[in-house]
Write a structure and sequence with these properties.
Helix content: 10-25%
Strand order of the largest sheet: 1-2-11-7-10-9-8
Strand content: 25-35%
Order of helices and strands: EEEHEEHEEHEEEHEEHEEEHEHHEEEEEE
CATH superfamily of the largest domain: Probable tRNA modification gtpase trme, domain 1
CATH architecture of the largest domain: 2-Layer Sandwich
Structural class: alpha+beta
CATH class of the largest domain: Alpha Beta
Radius of gyration: 21 Å
Oligomer: single chain
Distance between the termini: 41 Å
Shape: globular
Number of domains: 2
């Protein structure tokens, strides 16, 4: 374990490095602990967020489309090891994290987590992340791979201001892999690698704990994911990651899935991709992510105290008005890709643009997400989409496009 930054005897950053980062010479991306596994499964490896990851697998089953349906109907297994994993320690770590994120970290019950946003002094979004209060006494955070270095810079800057309090940030770097198993058969398959005595039917959405997986110690499981389906994210020591995923692959309903399927799945579920649908020019109210602050009168909205709060919250906790909002879009005949221009029903006045778009394999029609002027953001509003120079009629639509299946324990 290396100490990267020592801010005081108790407020500090630790960094753990398991090995020198190897690079895939074909795509220039840092390899994950599952690189050889992907190659054995026929993965088409591309650079994504600086890492070598499979966009799809070259199997005789239909590529991205088949992997999408595999996840919706059975279980898809994804490598998300590019994500940043951080453990926070110390009596004051929850208080410090609440300086950086909008969510109610102090209010988390042991074992549970939440989706939250890291904000800038201007009130825009640096990243979205999962924060969990581990029963084991630390706080576990997962941040986006493309954002983790600027996230770390933000945390370090805020730690400098925070002073000599009991906070320690442990950035895990390459010591841990992260995989996600998603779909209606995910729980059944994951149960087969759990220690005896642990029944996943009692584990709720956004609940997690440290455990062995397939006999590998030092793992962590969280019931969450980014597809709209039930499933789990599995944090695994890097050197044993292939042992765990190989054990999952023994289940008849599990197969691998890549970045292409993950993107179409998350868009059907109405979930944002950082860098496309949210970024450091977007605030939480524009992004329709105000719910991450809690409802009207919630502690985080009234107390505030996090970076940039005054840029989108009124002093009493109300949400400031915004000129644009994130919406779902459907009804066009062809897929509308990112930066496609959106117009009002007359086709004369530009009102926004698409941030993500695809052909929905589940709905068998084009869907998109984007920003429009607030006056046009109500579901059912007629709009026009300029697709390759031709105007196509469409409608603003509520998201998610496909009903989500997040698990609730009995």
């Amino acid at each position: 374990m290396l100490t990267r930054t020592l801010l005081s005897t108790t407020s500090r950053t630790l960094s753990r490095r398991g090995f020198a980062a190897a690079v895939n010479p074909d795509n220039g991306g840092i390899v994950t602990p599952l690189e050889d596994f992907h190659k054995s499964q026929g993965g088409k490896l591309v650079e994504f967020a600086g890492y070598s990851l499979p966009v799809l697998y070259n199997k005789d089953n239909g590529g991205v489309l088949a992997e999408h349906h595999q996840t919706r109907e059975r279980a898809g297994l994804f490598d998300v090891s590019h994500m940043g994993q951080i453990k926070w320690h110390g009596d004051d770590c929850a208080d410090f994290i609440e300086k950086c994120v909008v969510g109610d970290v102090k209010g988390l019950k042991p074992g549970f987590g939440l989706l939250t946003l890291i904000t800038t002094p201007e009130g825009t979004i640096i990243d979205d992340c999962i924060v969990s209060r581990a029963k084991e006494g630390y706080i576990y955070m997962v941040v986006n791979g493309a954002c983790k270095h600027k996230d770390m810079a933000q945390f370090n800057a805020e730690l400098e201001k925070y002073g000599s309090k009991d906070v320690c940030m442990e950035y895990m770097e390459e010591t841990l892999a992260l995989t996600a198993i998603q779909g209606p058969k995910a729980a059944e398959a994951t149960q087969t690698i759990m220690p005896s005595g642990i029944d996943l039917t009692g584990v709720d959405f956004m609940q997690g704990f440290d455990t062995e997986l397939a006999g590998v110690p030092g793992c962590r499981i969280t019931r969450c994911g980014y597809t709209g389906e039930d499933g789990f994210e599995l944090s695994i020591p890097a050197g044993q990651a292939e042992t765990v995923v190989s054990a999952l692959m023994e289940h008849a309903d599990v197969d691998v899935a890549g970045l292409g399927a993950r993107d179409s799945l998350r868009l059907e579920a109405g979930l944002c991709l950082y860098g496309n649908d949210i970024d450091d020019t977007t605030n939480p109210i524009e992004a329709v992510l105000g719910w991450t602050l809690g409802g009207k009168g919630s502690r985080r909205r009234t107390e505030q105290g996090f970076v940039g709060a005054d840029k989108f919250l009124k002093p009493e906790g109300g949400l400031m008005k915004v000129s644009r909002k994130r919406v779902g879009i459907a009804g066009m005949k062809a897929p509308a890709r990112g930066h496609t221009e959106l117009y009002d029903a007359s086709g004369e006045n530009k009102i926004g643009e698409v941030t993500s778009g695809t052909f929905s394999p589940t709905l068998k029609k084009p869907i998109a997400m984007g920003y429009v002027e607030t006056a046009h953001a109500k579901a059912g509003t007629d709009i026009m989409v300029n697709i390759r120079g031709k105007m196509q009629p469409a409608k603003v639509e509520k998201m998610p496009f496909v009903t989500t299946n997040y698990y609730r324990a009995p």
